[in-house]
Amino acid sequence: MSGLADAFSDDEPAFIPYLAVGDPDIAASKQYVEALVEGGADCVELGLPFSEPIAEGPTIQQAVVRSLSGGITPEAYFEFVDDLDVDVPLVCMTYYNLVFRYGADSGTAAGEGDHTAPGPRPFVKRAAEVGIDGFVIPDLPAEEADELRAACDEFGLDLVFIVAPTTTDDRLATIRERVSGYVYVQARLGVTGAQADVSDQTAESLARIADWDVPKAVGFGISTGDHAARVVSAGADGIIVGSALVDIVADGVENDRTTADVADDLRAKARELKEGALRGARESPEAEGK
Fold first, then answer.
1. What is the mean pLDDT of residues 217-245?
2. Among residues 38, 56, 144, 177, which one is catalytic?
3. How many CB atoms neighbour CB 197 within 10 A?
4. Where are the beta strands (DSSP E) in the chain?
5. Residue 201: pLDDT band by 50, 70, 90 thresholds?
6. Is residue 20 within 8 Å of 63, Cβ to Cβ?
7. Read out DSSP for 209-257?
8. Of 30, 71, 47, 19, the residue nearest 246 (C-alpha)
9. N or C, which terminus of the chain has less Cβ within 10 Å?
């Protein structure tokens, strides 16, 4: 499959940050992604903004507004990814409307055998061309993902699914059949957003999928190195952090800070989170038993 396995290949917890592409503009956004990689990111979730981000809390909703106001489009997103100078796997996080309508709305066939009727194949093909390694599509149920799964298989990309504390056993079985790259473990109920503490539901959610053969990365609410340490100590193979990083970008916008200063803060926060994850691995029951 794709290069997502590389994010987890060093036998240490992966740090996977999220940013909305184009927030607050393309040039700054590029520097911010590169700063996160310099700070220790093992993989980056690059958000393709959609006007109805149902899984997102206020922080990322505002990032989406800033990005869309700046003119981000699916094709501008692909050009952004193609332009990035990073050596870690990249995941596209977006909503299925954009994936399904891409070929039809652009009016451009993606190659021999493609057509402009709705469907995920042209989007997946274009993503593969620019260096995307996988997808997270929060509003696509696993039961309805066969067409996207087939396109990902064709072009060698991974398809990551989200497991919530309320996910039923039947749906877990369906997700297990279709997931690749890693499984995104939602640490708590609700939408995205930085929290003062991590949820006690995390260990329970991880225990439910302990025997799955894909890495488990926990997101929703992680905002400090201590949070990262607790999540990894509970058994996570990686951490996913979005709102705490988007808050830094928003502060830069609100206080008219320079791009370089905001990038420095993102780099420092990335180091804190990665170091916390590494500390959690050292403190985990498995490590202490060695």
1. 94
2. 56
3. 11
4. 14-20, 44-47, 90-93, 134-136, 158-160, 162-163, 183-186, 216-219, 238-241
5. confident
6. yes
7. TTT-SS-EEEESS--SHHHHHHHHHTT-SEEEE-HHHHHHHHHHHHTT-
8. 19
9. C
Q: Which residue's entry shows tokens 């320079």?
A: 258
Nearest 5°: the CA angle 186, 39, 70 is 70
Q: What residues form DSSP beta bridges with 163?
A: 185
Q: Is residue 45 annotated as a catalytic residue, yes or no?
A: yes
Residue of 12, 34, 38, 45 with catalytic role = 45
Res. 107 pLDDT band, cuts 50 70 90: low
Cβ-contact 125, 110 below 8 angstroms: yes
* Best CA proximity match to 222, nearest among 290, 163, 274: 274
Q: Which amino acid is at 241?
A: V
pTM score, two decimals?
A: 0.90
Higher pLDDT, 51 or 27: 27
Average pLDDT of the chain to the nearest whole number: 89
214 HSE (CA, 13 A, CB side): 23
Q: Which residues, including other chains, have CB under 8 Å from residue 273's CB and lie 6 or more apart?
A: 15, 17, 40, 222, 224, 225, 228, 239, 241, 244
Please report the sign of the dihedral spanned by the C-alpha atoms of residue 203, residue 39, residue 244, residue 92.
negative
Burial of 27 from C-beta contacts in 10 A (0-12 / 13-18 / 19+): exposed
